[in-house]
Write a structure and sequence with these properties.
The protein is α+β, with helices and mostly antiparallel strands. It is built from 8 helices and 14 strands. It folds into 2 domains: 53 residues; 213 residues, no CATH class.
């Protein structure tokens, strides 16, 4: 039989069990969904307020700012280009001036290195021009043989002569070594090479090679710088120049040497031809030359550069009484 206490305990159990299930269970979906809609409804005003507070960007102003900056950069770039062009022009002018200064310096260095040779060349040039301006002597007054050759001498050192030869572009016949002690011979092929070596200007070369003079008595005489050779048969040969390294010679000669006293000239005119040097009768030697010989002075070694000597310049001369333009026209 149940007691009242047992009945109360059972009633309590039956009531407590459903309560525990209701409390511990998860809320139904309807309740959860309604809770989520309420949450979205509550957050929507916050996002709208945030988007309303953010300012709108002005893209037109940004583009204008970029264009202003680009224009400034382009202007600066143009200024830089102008500056670079100006610097390049200045560099070009400076480079040209530097090249000119270097050329002048090199010329001064060469002049300084061959100063003695240049002085000797100037002295020989003055002497040659002075002697060629003088009228040739008459046949009776020719004591030094000036009617057949012109000789000019000048005192100088061996070093000055070697500098002169180097400056004139000549070659030494006996070399440049120590063996050249008492005699130095420069190679020249004819009077034209001698005039060029001493520096005769081109505009004076023709007048120096052939010129007509008038003596005090009115007679004319013509002097021509050419080597005249007379062979054993009495035929005249005028050596006008050497070619092919001296293997061939250009000469002027007549077919016959018959002279007509009535007209005061030869019957045959001079004609130029080129022939082998070995075929020339009696093998003529052109007296043209530039030679240095040492003096017999004591106290100086023969091979020393400061050895004093004498340079001799020789030019062949043909002197003809009268105007005598026939030979000069063939030069």
């Amino acid at each position: 039989m149940s007691t009242p206490a047992a009945i109360g305990s059972l009633a309590l159990r039956s009531v407590a069990a459903p309560l525990m299930v209701v409390v511990g269970a998860e809320p139904p979906p309807a309740v959860s969904a309604s809770h989520g809609v309420a949450g979205v409804a509550r957050s929507a005003p916050v996002k709208a307020a945030a988007s309303a507070a953010k300012p709108r960007r002005n893209h037109t102003r940004d583009i204008d700012d970029i264009q202003v900056k680009l224009a400034g950069l382009l202007a600066r770039d143009a200024e830089r280009e102008e500056l670079v062009d100006a610097l390049r022009r200045e560099a070009s002018v400076a480079q040209s001036l530097l090249g000119s200064f270097q050329s002048i310096r090199q010329a001064h260095e060469r002049e300084g290195a061959d100063a003695r040779g240049k002085d000797l060349q100037d002295c020989l040039l003055s002497a040659v021009l002075y002697r060629l301006r003088r009228c040739p002597p008459s046949p009776r007054g020719d004591k030094d043989g000036e009617r057949v050759k012109l000789v000019i001498t000048h005192d100088c050192s061996r070093e000055a002569f070697t500098q002169f030869v180097r400056r004139a572009g000549l070659q030494m016949v006996n070399g440049w070594g120590a063996a050249v002690r008492t005699t130095c011979v420069a190679r020249v092929d004819g009077p034209l090479a001698v005039l060029s070596a001493v520096g005769v200007p081109a505009e004076l070369t023709s007048a120096c090679r052939s010129a007509t003079f008038v003596r005090r008595n009115g007679n004319k005489v013509r002097r021509t710088l050419v080597h005249r050779h007379v062979d054993a048969a009495g035929k005249e040969w005028f050596v006008l120049g050497l070619e092919e390294g001296g293997q061939r010679v250009r000469v002027a000669a007549r077919e016959t040497e018959e002279f007509d006293a009535s007209i005061g000239s030869h019957l045959c005119e001079l004609a130029v031809r080129l022939m082998d040097a070995a075929d020339m009768p009696d093998a003529p030697t052109d007296p043209s030359g530039i030679v240095w010989k040492a003096n017999n002075s004591a106290g100086v070694v023969d091979g020393a550069p400061n050895k004093i000597g004498k340079v001799t310049l020789t030019l062949p001369v043909h002197t003809e009484e009268g105007h005598g333009t026939g030979l000069s026209a063939l030069l």
